[in-house]
Amino acid sequence: MEIDVVELSRLQFAMTAMYHFLFVPLTLGLSVLVAIMETVYVMTNRPVWRQMTKFWGTLFGINFVLGVATGITMEFQFGMNWSYYSHYVGDIFGAPLAIEGLMAFFLEATFVGLFFFGWDKLSKRAHMVVTWMVAIGSNFSALWILIANGWMQNPVGSQFNPDSMRMEMTSFFEVMFNEVAQAKFVHTVSAGYVTAAVFVLGVSAWYLLKGRHVELARRSIAVAATFGLASALSVVVLGDESGYSASHTQKMKLAAIEGMWETHDAPASFTLVGFPDKEARETHYALEIPWVMGLIGTRSLTQQIPGINDLVDQAEEKIRNGLIAYDALMTIRTERASTPDEVRATFEAHSEDLGFALLLKRYVDDPRTATEEQIKTAAADTIPGVASLFWAFRLMVGLGFSFIAVMAYFAFMASFRGMRFPRWALWLGVIIIPTPWLAAELGWFVAEFGRQPWTVDGVLPTALSVSHLSVADLLITLAGFVTLYTVLFIIEMGLMLKYIRKGPYEDVEETETWMARHEDRLRANDDKGPFAPEPAE
């Protein structure tokens, strides 16, 4: 594949986005877990829970700072590498980003300061409220970012203005309550909760293996396992909702994920494994589970899910229809106020498919001069990388179900076995720490790579969205970003490992004194409860 400005711009944005999302899931989930721990402290007045809140809050703070730094840089990408995209859809895309900055980010950033420096200045309940506001602000940030991204996947509440040559918002309500955005929000946030739960569980398991900070570790495992089990179940359920949404908003993405080349009789089967072949347009050695895809994609046993080949034929029809709109648009652009009413009426009748005509810009300056072969090639371009999507999705789903099993096991042991965990289970908890990040990155790969060749699905092709930059410019900035982000990642890992090795260093004397004074009562009254586990053997 030839490396050009479009491919380099995509690579640079993908790199910055995936680096940024190394920090986001832990911020989302750890903020809520810390708030839960502080709530238990306020309810029980046990110093160990305050110590837990401060310890995990420190790790949250390190991660939060790095997430902010990488997030701001990522948003600058729209003006740097995707200036035509910003011009074309900025009236719509910019609104949720602005709200995220003005409301959610400032809410979060303000209360983060109070969280760290308000322990001795605020009452227990007031500080608990601050902690919950940090968690709410973190999740609000995700909401508005995902509303913006959801619009790129399903551009509702907007229309193209032939006079300004830009997309304009027609309904902020539709943009905000876009079904794709809402499904992505709850799915992404739940994935963040799982990430934090696995992180807390894994670090706590390491403490138990080393025989350090046992009381903090056992309580942290109890909270992480129960919270993580609920979150892991939510991820699967809400991921199913995303699949249902894709069945009528992004049919090509769903067909590619499934490796479904032909439209089959309803209900469609789910391909468990197989080897998609884009050249032959066939999935070899497919092992199918009857009915499952039909139930996921349509919630029925009678509706069909279109295959890739039929969707390519539909794309060709839309390209031809879009050419009518493009021809009328060029007349409007030339005649301006003098444009005949019938020309504007023609444009309005076919404007929905204008974006498909723009796919031809990759091959010819004026789409109206495109040959039949170019039209067919442009229609075939609507097929994303099927094999990559197929396997990325299945690996992500496999990891999701493994999280349910792990969390269910630890929750059971914490609730019914006095928190006595076998060493193999503790080592498993440590080993799986990186896997939620892998699952999250795979999820974003499926969401964004599956949308290609569109920046805004059905509206603006990726090939038209880039800035007028040279390959040399992009190579230099790409090298700079890789270097900077790698340094930031090393700093993050160094700080996290330093404070994990250091362990809880605040309120140590107060916590140990309280635990020694109440050890007998704790063992007698609630030795198997998550709030007061038995001392380590």
UniProtKB/TrEMBL annotation:
Key word GTP-binding present: no
InterPro entries: Cyt-d_ubiquinol_oxidase_su_1
GO MF assignments: electron transfer activity; heme binding; metal ion binding; oxidoreductase activity, acting on diphenols and related substances as donors, oxygen as acceptor
Its membrane topology: Multi-pass membrane protein
Location in the cell: Cell inner membrane
Main location: membrane
Pfam families in UniProt: Cyt_bd_oxida_I
This protein's GO CC annotations: cytochrome complex; plasma membrane
GO BP annotations, alphabetical order: aerobic electron transport chain
Regions crossing the membrane: 20-43, 55-72, 92-117, 129-152, 185-209, 221-239, 391-412, 424-447, 467-491
Keywords of the record: Cell inner membrane, Cell membrane, Electron transport, Heme, Iron, Membrane, Metal-binding, Transmembrane, Transmembrane helix, Transport
Similarity comment: Belongs to the cytochrome ubiquinol oxidase subunit 1 family.
Name by which UniProt lists this protein: Cytochrome bd-I ubiquinol oxidase subunit CydA
Gene source species: Antarcticimicrobium sediminis
